[in-house]
Amino acid sequence: MDCKQAVSLMHDYLDGDASAHEKLELQNHLQGCAECRMKFKELEQTDMLLYAIRHTAPTASDELTARIMNALPQPKKQMAWLKWIKKHPAITAAALFLVFMFFGTLNFWSQDSQLIVRGTDLDQVVIKGDTVIVPADKSIAGDLTVENGKAQVYGSVNGNVTVIDGSLYQASTAHISGQVKSIDQAMDWVWYKISNLFSDVAYR
């Protein structure tokens, strides 16, 4: 805890609004910071003086009390969400990352129309325009992913076939040993990208 946070907590502490955890944090800080201890004593004395004026000085008018109260510096009240963000920086950073990732990926999804083909055995495929063909006499050892195009499988794919924002034709002669995925919606595409991102990070 720094001195700025400690001063803010002093006001809450004296007003009786500080939680048990905040009280403990403030006490720990005051033990090691002489400047804040002095500041706290000044605030405490001011608070006691005001209490005495209100409860033991019958000659003090309400107007005088109001003037004294208005002359005191007002503590800056932090918004509840700002306090929560300061107390949970890791969760906040992760949430912001996911938000930026979502909108950034969604933007790319809406703009990107170029054919993209990924796999481990791409010399076995034939590409004609926006169509990716696995001939009947060819076999792909691994996964095949086609983005923004058409996939036509006549041969064998020993892995998964994923088509993103496109179409898949699977002939009767085709054999796909893994899963067949067709992703056409933005949300599915974003989830697919995020899953792949975390998979890549995990394997590095």
UniProtKB/TrEMBL annotation:
The chain crosses the membrane at residues 89-109. Pfam families: zf-HC2. Keywords: Membrane, Transmembrane, Transmembrane helix. The keyword ATP-binding does not apply. InterPro entries: Anti_sigma_zinc_sf, Znf_put. Gene3D superfamilies: Anti-sigma factor, zinc-finger domain. Residues 3-37 form the Putative zinc-finger domain. Belongs to the zinc-associated anti-sigma factor (ZAS) superfamily. Anti-sigma-W factor family. This is Anti-sigma-W factor RsiW. It comes from Paenibacillus lacisoli.
